[in-house]
Prior knowledge:
This protein has 2 domains: 238 residues, Aspartate Aminotransferase, domain 2 (3-Layer(aba) Sandwich); 122 residues, Aspartate Aminotransferase, domain 1, CATH 3.90.1150.10. 38% of the residues lie in helices and 15% in strands. The strands form 4 sheets. Strands 1-9-8-5-4-2-3 form a 7-stranded mixed beta sheet, with helices on both faces. Helix 2 packs parallel to helix 8 and helix 9 runs parallel beside helix 12. The chain binds pyridoxal-5'-phosphate (PLP). Pyridoxal-5'-phosphate binds next to helix 3 and helix 4.
Amino acid sequence: MKKINVQMVDLMGQYDKIKSQIDKNIINTIRSGKLINGPIVREFSGNLSKFLEVKHVIPCANGTDALQIAFMALGLEPGDEVICPAWTYVATAEAAAILGLIPVMCDVNPNTFNVTSEYIEPLISEKTKAIVPVHLYGQSCDMEPIMNLAKKYNLKVVEDNAQAIGCKYTYSDCEAKLTGTIGDIGTTSFYPSKNLGAYGDGGAIFTNDDNLAEKIYLAANHGQNKRYHHKIIGCNSRLDSIQAEILNVKLKYLNEYNNNRNIMANNYNLAFEAIKEIQTPKIIKNSTHVYHQYTLKILNNKRDELKQYLLENDIPSMIYYPIPLYKQEAFSKFVEQGFELTNTEELSKSVISLPIHTELENSNQDYITEKVLNFFK
Ligand SMILES: *Cc1c(COP(=O)(O)O)cnc(C)c1O
């Protein structure tokens, strides 16, 4: 049988195409000696702020720190509640919990995988201070109703944009904004496999608010805006210069990378269209999609069998996420015993993500679709 070599993410294939620029820039950075907070870090944050059309981009060490720093900058206090999806990567709720905040777990729409204002509103209490929408797999949450809700209840909005950089959301009046720049603060991750990935850890925080930008900057830099003058208790969360060089190169290709992901997603969609056991990704009309993940719902309870079958055919696949947050031991103290959310439960049993990345070759994608179709024959 034909053997293929496909990975969920192909960082080496991508590197080969930009190697000369990357290598030259890394060496120049090392030779400059400015390894932390070098001029390239400022240059990259300037370029990213242009790309996102947001006033301030404050780089930091990773996407989890970015969330924590956002909560710190908003002045949230232990015991404050933040509403976040139960269906997300652990970091979203963890960054809140480590500050003593209470993550209130919200169910998600079973078709878009994202929180909506309908699921959020009933969870709002006197203690609620913020909403943390996550633009999961690369598609925006329906932000307009969420922003209206935040206004009505006087809540802050922190967008976890780790999976959706470059995704565009359009308001009903046709105003369009990139995700991460809609709420009070947006955060992202440059983890290598993210759509804009470094060759190590990295993250960033965005805001249009000058006052918040100052607080974010302080929180990420030991509480200082002048060396050895510490105004608040902060943390140490920096993007190093070498990662900034890499990101600066890759940012130029981000739209192209996201376009490639869309082409591949369309190929999959067409191939699976007629299979009634498969639900292909559903996109709301106000959002584009950057397909950080291409995630199917398998409707006949055979998700695990499909995963196994693909594995036997050398095709990797992933379950994002196998266990809802409220079933994690670490988060058990935030929920009553036996707590379950209907849609989140269903998703944990039905979703599967297929390889989608900027270097996936057509022949390999054809092989993957052929095998998936074969499974449902
Ligand atoms: C990756 C990710 C994070 C965390 O980013 P790190 O850089 O790994 O800390 C946070 N939220 C979501 C939704 C993510 O996918």
